[in-house]
Amino acid sequence: MTTKTTEKNRFLVAPVSEFPEDGGVCVKIGSYQIAVFRSTVRDKWYACDNFCPHSGDPVLSRGILGDSKGEPKVACPLHKRNFSLKTGECIGGEAHYKVEIYPVVIENGNVYLEVDAAMVRNGKNP
Q: Looking at the whole model, is its pTM more than 0.85?
């Protein structure tokens, strides 16, 4: 059996103080857009592709944070489709729409993202 490992890079995004409470911000790493969310209600951070998989528009960072049966979610501001911030799956039956989820690390008052270095170099976003 062969296993494939991917090189992960940790990128410094910004200090925690620069993020709105219970909202999102779009960050750009190379040509790659990632939505980063701060949930003070849950005391958690989340990150996903900034592009809505339905339309390809870079809008998810402006989406509304919420909860669906205990699952943290973001609602696309254009089409109101909800995406799990744990799995990236579309909540509500449209399994073919999915966003990539990225680890967020908070360290010494700063926000870091861990992303696949090759995806950033190759510009994965549409």
A: yes
Contact 28, 38 (CB under 8 A): no
User: Where residue 5 falls among pLDDT bands split at 50, 70, 90?
Assistant: very low
Distance between CA atoms of residues 94 and 30, nearest Å: 30
* Domains by residue range for the chain, with CATH: 8-120 (2.102.10.10)
Question: In 3-state terms, the chain is what percent helix, strand and coil (to 5)?
Answer: 10, 50, 45
H or E element that contains 121: helix 117-122
Predicted confidence at residue 1, as pLDDT, reads 42
CB atoms within 10 A of CB 125: 17
Task: Let me know: does 72 contact 64? Beta carbons within 8 Å.
Answer: no
What CA–CA distances, in Å, run from 36 to 43, 69, 105, 124? 14, 22, 11, 17
